[in-house]
Amino acid sequence: MGSFYVTTPIYYVNDVPHLGTAYTTIIADALRRFHLLLGDDTYMLTGTDEHGLKIERQAKEVGLAPKVFTDQISERFREAWPKLEIAADRFIRTTDADHEAFVIELWKKIASVGDLYKGSYEGWYCVGCEELKTEKELLPGNLCAIHKTQVERVKEETYFFKLEKYQARLLEFYAKHPNFIQPETRRNEVLSFVNGGLKDLSVSRTSFSWGIPVPDDPKHVMYVWFDALTNYRSALGHGDLKKYWSPNAKVVHLVGKDILRFHAVFWPAFLMAAGYKDSEIPNVVFAHGFLTIDGEKMSKSLRNAVDPLKIAAELGADVLRYHLLRAISFGQDGDFDHAAILERYNADLGKNLGNLLNRTLGLCAKMTAGKAPKIGERSPLDNQLEANVSAALDAVRQSWETLEPHRALEGTMAICSFANKYVDESAPWTRAKDDPARVPTILGMLLSVLRAVSVLIWPAMPKKSDEMRAQIGLAPLSPEIGSDVWPSTLELVPEGTPLDVGKPLFPTLDADQQKAVLEKLVPKKEAPADATASIADAPQRQADSASSALEDAPITYDHFTTVELKVGLVKTCERVPKKDKLLKLAVDVGEPEPRTIVAGLALSFTPENLVGRKVVVVANLAPRDFGKGLVSHGMLLATGPSEKLILATVDGDAAPGSRLK
Ligand code: MSP
Fold first, then answer.
1. In testing the pocket of ligand 1, which one of 23, 263, 300 has its CB within 8 Å of the most ligand atoms?
2. Which atom of ligand 1 has the smallest separation from the CA of 543?
3. For the sheet containing 131-133, what is the strand order?
4. Band of the pLDDT at 643, cuts 50, 70, 90?
């Protein structure tokens, strides 16, 4: 028993909660619940990351002051998590006064040891990543490799953090703490990055103001990642909660693989510079993989369409939690498949766990007057069941401890399978006729398995655990510090406990019901109005920086005018070799040279159909790289499915380059 402190990344408020952010937060909550069962003193932190250029710009685009904007979106996160049965101890915002004060304190500490110095920086910045990029990291056309959007040239005065100075100490720390970065493959990536040499890090900006001002130099605001990473420590402050950041506590940061470097390199280096000892550096930074949805990368539109709250409302938060924890090997990329969630629901929860509960309670209702029976002498079959289950109880505990929830739940279901097999083999309905004295023992054994399972599922499915326990006459779990309630062997449900054959916990869904659920949940595959965005084999965009939050709000006229819609005249058009859907066009938009635009029009138009037509072009879209030197510099508007597209065209004499408004 000890202290356990688990954190999620704090989420940017340029987006509302989606399946990706829900995933990390659900896992953090499940791990924390597991540690509660062990009797650990636990603390869970989540929250929102609200400063920086990205947020300042988005607030401006919707015509709101940054704080008003961040208040609105942050609230969406705060409200969402309890609906997924997530109970964090603190929801931190980087605009919280205590956080800001702590960040300033950390800055001053680092400055006082001489690890911050003023200089100037010139290079490339990706606002989506909120990160400076080296030339080597960019794609042709100066595109960010993650966001596929154009990076910005930055030239300004900045404070640097002496990161290079910490290279050796970091490497030594990684060597002494082999579990600090998990999983192993990610650890190797970080090691090779650090071994490759660290450069001092720019940690302030002067070209915008939405951030924490640098002490005594308010022209500068602190780099958003310096501010954000500090949340893990600032949330605990200097009082009693500091115990969660002591050598006695286990500190686990869960992060997506996209932000591992910040957590595994910059964050420990900041802490080291601020005087934290190695024993006060977090114990684990675990980088999990990315989710795809029904096999597709979570693009902005898809991400919005798959709303975890909608899934939870339809199937129950516990079912969503179970699926995410069970179906994806923690640490690997994984697919969230809508049909698979229903299949797994039916198989694991309906036919295995649910059936075990229903059949046991049904048999007790008939054979032991709906009460927990007194158990008699055990047979070898009973002992075998107990031996199998006890071994599995340990293995499941071990899997949670080693951050393998998918295995833990697999082991939990294996226990249900043993018990279902035991029902078939012990055949209480036959024993009722030929050996009635056996029946109470069989049913008593089964109730004790259900009792253990009700504890094992609690981290993943707290609500279902409560319901299950109510049916077997037990109070909901309410773990206490210092008391380890993880079962190590089978424990009987006390004799005479009234049982309740309630509603099935997990009624299986037949084919029609599944179809009806899928119709509600699976995003409709309408072709987007823009033809280039519908190209199936275009380079996939990573969950980009554009805001779904913004889509919920009406836009101002100023916002609308940021999109340059222009009349374009198609000069030439040709097919793209090996790309069935793509056409490469040269479009005159009133500039000295026609633009190259790559569009997913080939299933609806031949090149000859298009030459000479006047089309609508989004002219200020960031270039998009299709690989092999093919870069699109704009987008045409169209509507309909890719085989029957209707092009948005312009009548009359509008000159190429005329603005549409
Ligand atoms: N604000 C920073 C984190 C600062 S932590 C000091 C940030 N925020 S974010 O809103 O972009 O959220 C990133 C995190 O969301 C990822 O690291 C991951 O935890 C989660 N995910 C976002 N998309 C995801 C998937 N498609 N799949 C799984 N997780 C994903 O970065």
1. 23
2. 23
3. 131-133, 116-126, 152-161, 201-202
4. confident
* Short-list 324, 358, 93, CA closest to 227: 93
Tokens describing residue 449:
């398995």
Strands 646-647 vs 638-639: parallel, antiparallel or unpaired: antiparallel
* 282, burial (CB in 10 Å: exposed 0-12, middle 13-18, buried 19+): buried
How far apart CA 616 and CA 530 sit, in angstroms, is 10
Residue 306: per-residue pLDDT: 83
Q: What is the mean pLDDT of residues 437-459?
A: 98
Residue 301 — pLDDT band, cuts 50, 70, 90?
A: low
Please write the tens of the pLDDT for every residue from 608-622: 999 999 999 999 887
Q: Given a cut of 80, is residue 27 above it in pLDDT?
A: yes
**Which of 25, 49, 76 to mutate to test ligand 1, by most ligand atoms within 8 A of the CB atom?**
49
- pTM confidence score: 0.81
As a whole number of angstroms, the distance between CA 26 and CA 319 comes to 12
Helix boundaries (H) for 274-379: 300-305, 308-315, 317-327, 338-344, 355-367
Question: How do residues 50-94 score in pLDDT, each as one tens digit?
Answer: 999 999 999 998 899 999 999 999 999 999 999 999 999 999 999
| Buried b / exposed e along 134-151 (16+ C-beta atoms within 10 A) | eeeebbebbbbebbbbbb
* Residue with CA at minimum distance from ligand 1 atom 24: 20
CA separation for the pair 266, 170 (Å, rounded): 10
Q: Determine how many CB atoms are found less than 10 A away from the CB of residue 554.
A: 9
Determine the straight-line distance between the first and last CA of the chain, rounded to whole angstroms. Answer: 66
- 382 Cβ contact list (under 8 Å, min separation 6): 426, 441, 442, 445
Q: How far apart are CA 182 and CA 331, in angstroms?
A: 8
Q: Is the CB of 73 under 6 A from ligand 1?
A: no
Pocket test for ligand 1, best of 259, 285, 301, 302 (most atoms within 8 A of CB): 259
Q: With H, G, I as helix, E, B as strand and everything else as coil, classify residue 131.
A: strand
Nearest in space to 263 (alpha carbons), one of 479, 24, 501, 440 = 24
For residue 563, give the DSSP letter: S
Q: Give the pair of three-digit tokens for residue 478.
A: 């309410």
Query: Could you tell me if the CB of 266 is within 6 A of ligand 1?
Result: no
In this prediction, residue 559 has a pLDDT band, given cuts at 50, 70 and 90, of low
Residue range 363-386, pLDDT digits in tens? 999 999 999 999 999 999 999 999
Read off the pLDDT of each residue in 210-216 and give the average, rounded to a whole number. 97
Ligand 1 touching residue 4 (CB < 6 A): no
Q: Are 362 and 356 in contact (CB under 8 A)?
A: no
